[in-house]
Design brief:
The complex is a heterodimer of chains A (448) and B (292). By secondary structure, chain A is mainly α. Chain A contains 14 helices and eight strands. Classes of the chains: A mainly alpha (448), B mainly alpha (292).
């Protein structure tokens, strides 16, 4: 273990942890905004109850997403100073834009939404939750544009050992980003949809209240549509990966040598002929590069070194992502069919819906492991190695200290968050207080 | 262009210190100025709708440093590794505490998080900037004490301005006590800079003390905000010459293409941000009443 290993562990731990909360913020924000819109349009009280109920769960989760996100922004400079100096000219721009164009909107309007129930006209108040939710989604775009650049750098040149941006538009419309943004955002909607399904499943086991049924149906529609987008964009991403990140594709498939008409290995030993070539190019006979041959070519191009990522992690995370993600979507489609035209939710289905909480969360984390461990050993593909990115001035003891602090703190907060969410789910939506007239109301409806 | 971006970053940090300054102060003082749960909740409610938006000033300031001066950003954050780690810990426990305290059965842990999470960054930012300027442990302690005291004062004045009844009375007393510490510490911290904004900042703090004494809460708040603006200005005037030992702004800066692009985006977006954030303060302009 040296400072580099610990810095990588810290980045991995803090990023995965951050991303447990982010997809829920992205998807649930829009879902809550949709519920409030439904209330606004129909005037039905059940939508107001649902808005407040899911709004509260959203806020418990939102807090964690925000505070763990700040760590990410600081960490580039703290642990990866060489990386920051190399990429700042290009990579910093979308980060600054994210703060200016998305975070301000998200945080400011969310504050207005939380405390504005009795201060703002209904229509304006509805607009604030939409603004906050759109801000969250916008932030995803900017950070993914930055992230995509690490895997497929465009719109830059290297001058004096530093990347210099030459075309901002190229960075913001990077083909990798345009594939990744809808994939991750739709994946987040599957996570959020799954979360709502699990909560509704829990309640549908106890009651036949129309409220939970309508929320579950809405979440099923959201999950199914988002699932289709995930599958479609995932397929597109595989084709881009074939062109742009052949090593990641080869590692994800466990393909050792260049092969024409390569088969797709479902698990080691079971192979579907020619499927990999087809999935990568739509051509069953197309050649697919293998890890060992790529390694040889990379050595010729970049000099001696190991250019292969951790193949076990990449191989299995790819499969976990697909299986767990598609299982959720399959469940959603099946449930939509079974509950069509006012048919009730059978008890076994409500129970199965509880699984829709962990499954897509595992899938989306696995997707990130595939994406980022598959990028190794580079931080910027073909330009900068991870080993050359770390802060030279930060000692092993320092990283060990911060890693220990974050791990312990995050562990405690996880327990607290889960307990808090569970308690509010169990409380249900019936206890939401009605909104009295503006004059007599002094307390905010949701907080403090 | 380099000068402009340095000015924008100084502006963002200034906005951060002015706005989060009172958030930190309120966070530290809320338990002190209240005698029961309702009063404490009212105290925290003065910052409830705005603190998260205020914190984005920091995220934007740091993002702008990363984009416009990568080597400066990387140098500062890796050099002050442990203090920055502790700042993050503070911001985490404060944010979670504020968001969760209304949703837990017993808010004591949240309140502890809010107090510690407000005091830690309030102290550490001052000590990081002082250490950056003077490179001495003593300066770091004095600088930290200065920002801690000024945040407490700024927050106490804000509480007095935004509450009523006994909370407001106690906030005024707390403000006077904080001023009693902040003014002498300011003399110790700022006189070594000796520049006009540094001296003016001390004067503004003295003026704030007099204004609180005379119960002019609005003007006192303007004075503490002015003191923070002037102190930040004094610090960034020094940093302009030497942002980090052995580094100049020109060496640290991104290329002119990036800076030009960022300028356009900033010029278009920043007015909107200022308007809607200003609107938030307008919506919640009334004093917070204690429930029950």
């Amino acid at each position: 273990m040296d400072a580099l290993d610990l810095a990588r562990w810290q980045f991995g731990v803090t990023t995965v942890y951050h991303f447990l909360f982010v997809p829920l913020t992205i998807g649930l924000g829009i879902f809550v905004a949709g519920l409030q819109t439904a209330w606004h349009r129909t005037g039905k009280e059940q939508y107001l109850k649902l808005t407040k109920f899911f709004g509260k769960l959203f806020l418990i989760n939102f807090a964690m997403g925000v505070v763990t996100g700040i760590v990410q922004e600081f960490q580039f400079g703290m642990n990866w100073s060489e990386y920051s100096i190399f990429v700042g000219d290009v990579f910093g721009a979308p980060l600054a834009m994210e703060a200016l164009l998305a975070f301000f909107m998200e945080s400011t309007f969310l504050g207005l939404w939380i405390f504005g129930w009795d201060r703002l006209p209904k229509r304006v108040h509805l607009a604030t939750i939409w603004a906050a939710a759109i801000g969250s989604n916008l932030s995803a775009y900017f950070i993914l544009a930055a992230n995509a650049w690490m895997k497929h750098p465009v719109g830059y040149e290297v001058v004096d050992g530093r990347a210099r941006m030459t075309d901002l538009w190229a960075v913001l419309t990077n083909s990798t980003a345009l594939a990744q943004v809808p994939h991750v955002i739709a994946g987040s909607f599957v996570v959020a949809g799954g979360f709502v399904l699990a909560v509704c499943g829990y309640w549908l086991l106890k009651t036949r209240a129309e409220m939970w049924r309508s929320a579950a149906r809405a979440a099923l529609v959201m999950t199914a549509i988002a699932g289709a987008v995930v599958a479609f964009t995932g397929d597109h991403s595989a084709k881009l990966m074939y062109e742009q990140q052949p090593m990641k594709l080869a590692a994800a498939e466990g393909l050792k040598h260049d092969t024409e008409g390569a088969g797709f290995s479902v698990v080691p030993g079971i192979e579907i002929p020619k499927l990999l070539s087809f999935l990568s190019t739509y051509d069953v006979d197309a050649p697919v590069q293998g890890t060992e041959d790529l390694q040889r070519r990379f050595e010729q191009q970049f000099g001696p070194g190991d250019y292969r990522p951790d193949q076990t992690v990449v191989f299995w995370s790819f499969r976990v992502m697909i299986v767990f993600g598609m299982a959720t979507v399959g469940l959603a489609v099946l449930a939509l069919w079974l509950t069509r035209r006012r048919r009730p939710f059978p008890a076994w289905l409500s129970r199965a819906m509880l699984l829709a909480l962990p499954l897509p969360l595992v899938a989306i984390i696995a997707g990130w492991l595939l994406s980022e461990i598959g990028r190794q050993p580079w931080t910027v593909a073909g330009e900068l190695l991870t080993a050359a990115s770390v802060s030279p001035s930060v000692s092993l003891a320092e990283v060990a200290t911060s890693l220990a602090i974050f791990t312990i703190l995050y562990g405690v907060l996880t327990v607290a968050e889960v307990v808090l969410l569970a308690r509010h789910v169990r409380k249900g939506a019936e206890e939401q207080e009605p909104i009295p007239a503006a004059e007599e109301r002094r307390e905010p409806s949701l907080m403090y | 262009m380099i000068e402009l971006w340095f000015a924008i970053i100084a502006f963002l940090w200034t906005g951060y210190f002015v706005l989060e300054g009172f958030d930190f102060g309120v966070g530290m003082l809320a338990p002190l100025v209240s005698r029961n749960a309702d009063e404490q909740r009212a105290g925290l409610q003065t910052i409830g709708p705005v603190w998260d938006g205020n914190e984005v000033w920091l995220i934007t300031a740091v993002g702008a440093m990363f984009a416009a001066f990568p080597a400066w950003y990387a140098g500062v954050f890796s050099a002050f590794y442990l203090p920055v780690t502790l700042v993050l810990v503070g911001l985490i426990v404060r944010g979670v505490g504020l968001e969760w305290r209304g949703k837990v059965t017993d808010p004591r842990w949240c309140d502890l998080g809010i107090v510690v999470g407000s005091a830690l960054p309030a102290f550490l930012w001052g000590s990081v900037f002082a250490d950056l300027l003077f490179n001495s442990a003593l300066a770091a302690v004095v600088g930290g004490a200065f920002t801690l005291a000024v945040c407490a004062l700024h927050g106490a004045v804000f509480l007095a301005l935004k509450t009523t009844g006994p909370v407001r009375r106690r906030a005024r007393v707390a403000a006077l006590a904080a001023a009693g510490v902040a003014v002498p510490v300011a003399v110790a911290a700022l006189s070594s800079l000796g520049t006009i904004p540094a001296l003016a900042s001390m004067a503004a703090l003295a003026a704030a003390t007099a204004l609180i004494w005379r119960r002019r809460e609005g003007w006192a708040f303007a004075a503490t905000a002015g003191a923070i603006v002037l102190a930040t200005l004094a610090v960034f005037m020094e940093l302009r010459v030497r942002p980090l030992p052995g580094l100049t702004l020109a060496e640290a800066a991104s290329g002119s293409y990036t800076l030009t692009m960022l300028t356009w985006i900033g010029l278009i977006a920043l007015p909107f941000v200022l308007v809607y954030q200003g609107w938030t303060y307008w919506v919640f302009r009334k004093r917070v009443l204690v429930a029950g």
